[in-house]
Write a structure and sequence with these properties.
The protein has about 180 residues and is an alpha+beta fold. It has five helices and four strands, in the order βαβαααβαβ. The chain is rod-shaped, with a radius of gyration of 25 Å.
Length: about 180
């Protein structure tokens, strides 16, 4: 038994079983729940209330910022800093500024989406406490796991362990911190 726990891990055989377990854990008041499965579980994802919106917002805002920065850089260079009147064209030739502005905006959005996703997922992480749990490697093959974190305000080791056993999982294991 470890002095400190990351949480308690329950292993299930079917997606329906873990979906029922997550619903019961949420209704019991647990908020710090993580699930691990070999494929996405959309119903469980909705119950946990997590979405991909933050990465989309980061990408849109960074794309707009990059596009505005590119457009105003072109305007500054062509109309204010080094104006050249070639062939009588206007100094602020905005149609010529559009393709580079769109390209740079997309590059900023893509880079921000990648960096934002890595930051929100707390990656790169070379070690996670769950990697030390025997059998957890099956989360990428054929098993479904639910972890109630010790950071949960409702977490009490013995009460949470008995609650998880009531859900009839295959295993309930300690996850050392």
């Amino acid at each position: 038994m470890a002095d400190r726990l990351y949480g308690l891990l329950a292993g299930f055989e079917t997606p329906e079983a873990i979906d029922r377990a997550v619903r019961r854990a949420r209704s019991a008041g647990y908020t710090e729940i993580r699930t691990y499965s070999p494929f996405p579980l959309h119903e469980t994802h909705e119950v946990l209330g997590r979405g991909g919106l933050p990465v989309a917002v980061i990408a849109v805002l960074a794309g707009l910022f990059g596009a505005c920065l590119q457009y105003f850089a072109q305007y500054w260079m062509n109309a204010i800093d080094w104006p050249l009147n070639v062939g009588g064209r206007p100094l602020n030739s905005w149609p010529a500024f559009i393709p580079p502005t769109l390209i740079v905006g997309m590059l900023w959005a893509a880079a921000a989406a990648l960096i934002g996703m890595l930051a929100l997922c707390r990656l790169p992480r070379l070690h996670h406490p769950l990697f030390a749990v025997p059998g957890f490697e099956r989360a990428s093959a054929d098993r479904f796991f639910m972890c109630v974190l010790a950071d949960d305000p409702r977490f009490d080791e013995s009460a949470t362990r008995s609650f998880l056993r009531e859900l009839e999982p295959e295993t309930v294991q300690d996850v050392p911190a």
